[in-house]
């Protein structure tokens, strides 16, 4: 089977992000970038499905020149080839991202398209669902388990209140949650091999995608900081403060 | 400009309280944009829920009652919601950020050719110039966004809008004639509910959350259950605890789990990673108990106690019980 997966470049998920004083964006000096953790889960799921069932994994990223690095990570994890659509984050919104990915899907015609549930920079949690609607495909978002049974896919989803199971016909769109798997670390030989794997570079214009944005971020600011609290020395003091100062118990 | 349509969220045939935050959002947006709002109830046998939401002063409550909507399936529901929005002249569609809202709304946006704003925290401006604030980068950045399309879809951050209260007059209930098309590509194959007698995380006024410092299931349950019992609290957990299978997935609080803002949040033996803080740092009073005085959770705690949770929590419970 042929599986399309995403490889979005994001700021280090554990970095404390700061806003530029003029509110036009975030401070990028000294920031590290990584493959979006949810994309790691998506790539792992795709690669292991193909290891079991045969086929090919194609990884796609939309990003500026430096996103190549993260696309290569997906190739080092086992994707066969890459597609790099050049556009910087400020030129994108979820909808345009989805329309570009839908176009890639139409060119590639995979059996399955696995994305991450969310990009940990924008935190939108929209793209997979948008792609599914644009393509008229069934979706299973926030997947924590996936099983291929012949030409159908059983997916367990993490939803409020429990775990839901869906049975989908293929082709389908799945978005990965963190518990779907434990992403492999690329081995050194695979990192080297990935350097030679083919990457097709294009632009949204080449693809004939309308680049009008539907949502624009016009300002960035830091959230209100919490006023500093205190350390109490004993359990007695804690109970006293909660009772007589905060009055919450 | 057309109206706003709020999608009611239900669970086992009952209204989920999170819906009330979207109603509050819709009231605010309606006032600012100078439009009206309606509430949509979709599903099978939705009469009771429709009657329940008819007391909030919405222009109308629209029902789409169809056996094909018995179980929620994104594609089928998105078609029904978008069809209803078009039929009733709604340019805006909103629901609360929950796994239901997250799953459904982008598909509705794609159908309506609308821009979508995820996790709206506030509305600013007026009809000619509406702006919305939303969290990005695990809540370390607040973005102000504008939608450029005539139609827009919103998921609403529940903790930022106080639940609407009924009493603004009765709304007429109208059964809408919307085509519900199930393309048959998805078969709903079951639901394993997390069984709990405790309040819902997003609704509880006290949340007690435990982390990896509690070691295993016995440690977690042994400390967290009595603490939760003490306050009739909901239990939350970190990703580390959920990943280890110690607590069910829907107890995860954080950037990629649930966002809560109770009156009291007691964080026990959890470090306070950026991703966890994203889900709880707007709680009114935060208590942290951690044996490491450098733990980042202390930076958001009103009251921090450096102590071994296995000792401190039982003592705390004893003392509170003594009164
Ligand atoms: C993409 C992504 C998304 C994520 N989303 C989330 C999310 O939504 N929610 C979330 O919670 N995490 C999330 N995480 C994980 C997060 O980064 C942390 O790894 C996680 O929150 C740590 O959990 P913890 O605090 O339980 O464990 P640890 O960080 O291991 O902390 C354990 C703490 O317990 C203390 N301790 C140990 N023993 C005791 C004792 N006896 N008494 C008192 N204290 C003790 C230690 O001092 C330590 O501070 C995400 C990570 C990624 C990469
Ligand atoms: N620029 C991008 N390139 C590739 N995939 C992306 C990009 N942006 C978003 N995605 C995919 O869409 C998912 C959801 O993103 P979002 O809706 O932005 O939170 C991510 O986890 C990725 O799988």
In terms of topology, how is this protein built?
The complex is a heterodimer of chains A (249) and B (323).
Chain A: E1 2-6, E2 9-11, E3 33-35, H1 37-53, E4 56-63, H2 67-77, E5 81-86, H3 94-108, E6 112-116, H4 127-135, E7 139-149, E8 152-159, E9 162-169, E10 172-176, H5 188-196, E11 199-202, E12 215-221, E13 230-232, H6 235-245
Helix pairs in contact in A: 2-5, 3-4
Chain B: E1 3-7, E2 10-11, E3 14-15, H1 19-33, E4 37-43, H2 47-53, E5 61-65, H3 74-87, E6 90-96, H4 99-112, E7 115-120, E8 122-126, E9 129-136, E10 141-147, E11 152-156, E12 173-175, E13 186-193, E14 206-210, H5 217-231, E15 234-237, H6 239-243, E16 264-268, H7 274-277, E17 285-290, E18 303-306, H8 309-322
Parallel strand pairs in B: 1-4, 1-6, 4-5, 5-12, 6-11, 7-11, 14-15, 14-16, 16-17, 17-18
Antiparallel strand pairs in B: 2-3, 8-9, 9-10
The complex binds flavin-adenine dinucleotide (FAD) and adenosine monophosphate.
Index terms:
A: 249 residues; alpha/beta; Rossmann fold; two-stranded antiparallel sheet; 6 helices; globular; B: 323 residues; seven-stranded parallel beta sheet; binds adenosine monophosphate
> Which series of helices and strands of chain B comes N to C?
EEEHEHEHEHEEEEEEEEHEHEHEEH
Structural class of chain B: alpha/beta
Using CB atoms under 8 Å apart, which protein chain pair has the greatest interface? A-B, 82 and 88 residues
What binds here, in terms of ligands, is: flavin-adenine dinucleotide, adenosine monophosphate
Distance separating the two termini of chain A: 58 Å
């Amino acid at each position: 089977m042929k599986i399309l997966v995403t490889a979005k470049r994001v700021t280090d998920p554990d970095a404390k992000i700061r806003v530029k004083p003029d509110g036009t964006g975030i401070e990028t000096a000294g920031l590290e970038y990584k493959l979006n953790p949810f994309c790691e889960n998506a790539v792992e799921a795709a690669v292991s499905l193909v290891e079991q069932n045969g086929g090919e994994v194609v990884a796609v990223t939309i990003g500026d020149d430096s996103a190549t690095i993260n696309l290569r990570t997906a190739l080092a994890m086992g994707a066969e080839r890459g597609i790099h659509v050049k556009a910087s984050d400020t030129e994108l919104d979820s909808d345009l991202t989805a329309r570009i990915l839908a176009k890639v899907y139409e060119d590639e015609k995979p059996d399955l398209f696995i994305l991450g549930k969310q990009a940990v920079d924008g935190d939108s949690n929209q793209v997979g669902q948008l792609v599914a609607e644009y393509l008229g495909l069934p979706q299973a978002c926030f997947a924590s388990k996936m099983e291929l049974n012949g030409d159908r896919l059983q997916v367990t989803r993490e939803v409020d209140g429990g775990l839901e199971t869906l049975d989908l016909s293929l082709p389908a769109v799945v978005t990965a949650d963190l518990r779907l798997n434990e992403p492999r670390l690329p081995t050194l030989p695979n990192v080297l091999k990935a350097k030679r794997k083919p990457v097709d570079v294009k632009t949204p214009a080449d693809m004939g995608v309308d680049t009008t944005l539907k949502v624009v971020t016009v300002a960035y600011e830091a959230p209100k900081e919490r006023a500093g609290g205190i350390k109490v020395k004993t359990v007695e003091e804690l109970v006293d403060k909660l009772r007589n100062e905060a009055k919450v118990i | 400009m057309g109206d706003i349509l709020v999608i009611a969220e239900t669970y086992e045939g009952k209204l989920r309280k999170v819906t009330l935050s979207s109603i509050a959002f819709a009231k605010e947006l309606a006032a600012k944009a100078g439009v009206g709002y309606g509430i949509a109830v979709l599903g099978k046998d939705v009469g009771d829920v429709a009657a329940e939401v008819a007391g909030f002063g919405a222009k109308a409550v629209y029902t789409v009652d169809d056996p094909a909507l018995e179980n929620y399936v994104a594609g089928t529901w998105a078609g029904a919601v978008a069809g209803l929005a078009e039929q009733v002249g709604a340019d805006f569609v909103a629901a609360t950020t929950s796994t239901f809202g997250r799953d459904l709304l982008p598909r509705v946006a794609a159908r309506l050719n609308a821009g979508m704003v995820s996790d709206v925290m506030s509305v600013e401006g007026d009809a000619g110039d509406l702006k919305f604030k939303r969290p990005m980068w695990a809540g370390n950045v607040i973005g102000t966004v504008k939608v450029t399309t005539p139609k827009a879809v919103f998921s609403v951050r529940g903790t930022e809008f106080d639940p609407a209260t009924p009493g603004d007059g009765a709304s007429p209930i109208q059964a809408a004639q919307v085509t519900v098309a199930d393309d048959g590509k998805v078969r709903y194959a079951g639901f394993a509910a997390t069984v709990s007698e405790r309040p819902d995380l997003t609704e509880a006024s006290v949340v007690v959350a435990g982390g990896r410092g509690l070691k295993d299931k016995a440690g977690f349950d042994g400390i967290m259950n009595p603490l939760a019992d003490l306050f009739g609290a909901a239990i939350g957990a970190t990703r580390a605890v959920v990943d280890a299978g110690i607590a069910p997935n829907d107890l995860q609080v954080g950037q990629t789990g649930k966002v809560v803002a109770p009156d009291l949040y007691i964080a026990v033996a959890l470090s306070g990673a950026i991703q966890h803080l994203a889900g709880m740092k707007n709680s009114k009073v935060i208590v942290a108990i951690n044996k490491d005085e450098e733990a980042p959770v202390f930076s958001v705690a009103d009251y921090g106690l450096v102590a071994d949770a296995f000792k401190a929590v039982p003592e705390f419970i004893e003392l509170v019980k003594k009164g």
